[in-house]
Amino acid sequence: MATLWVVIAVLTAISCGANSTRQTKQSNLPAIKHQTIKLSEESLTKGITDTLRFGVMRQGELVIKDLTLENVGTKPMVLLRHVTSCGCVNIEYERKPIAANQSCDIHFAYDSRGQMGWQMKLLEFYFADSATPLKIYIEAEVE
């Protein structure tokens, strides 16, 4: 009976050690920071390009990141449509005008299933009164 308790104690210690190692690895992953892009009539005319960096991911992992579009212009901005270069990116946002001095959150879900290595995906957002799209690149390293 004492041997059984020793085996249980050893297995528990090994199990706890494995969990703490796993937690350490997760805490070393790069933090995905929330980004904000400031939009104005002038900036949309010139064109804006930005990159959302998802860091290192495991193949098959789904990572969600938010981006805020802030209207610093004087007129409401209407996001008409978006185009993605890959079906691996799902985008959700509220489909209403962004009033002056207001903002809109866009939720990006990147599914790395079936991908490997360095990834760069392009998303284009088209606004009313602007022929130039807002270009957002998604960058990730899939292991």
Structure description:
The protein is α/β, with parallel strands linked by helices. The protein contains 2 helices and 8 strands. The strands form 2 sheets. A 4-stranded mixed β-sheet has the order 1-3-6-5. A hairpin with a 6-residue loop joins strand 7 (117-127) and strand 8. It starts with a helix and ends with a strand. The relative contact order is 0.23. Mean pLDDT is 80; it is low at 2-32.
What characteristics describe this protein?
single chain; 143 residues; alpha/beta; four-stranded mixed beta sheet; 8 strands; 45% strand; elongated
Shape: elongated
Strand order of the largest sheet: 1-3-6-5
Rg, alpha carbons: 22 Å
* Record field, number of beta strands: 8
Helix fraction bin: 10-25%
Give me the strand/helix succession.
HEHEEEEEEE
Detail the topology: elements first, then pairings.
Blueprint lengths: L1 H26 L7 E5 L1 H6 L2 E9 L4 E10 L7 E6 L4 E5 L9 E9 L5 E11 L6 E9 L1
Parallel strand pairs: 1-3, 2-8
Antiparallel strand pairs: 3-6, 4-7, 5-6, 7-8
Short recap of the structure:
With about 140 residues, this protein is α/β, with parallel strands linked by helices. The chain is about 20% helix and about 45% strand.
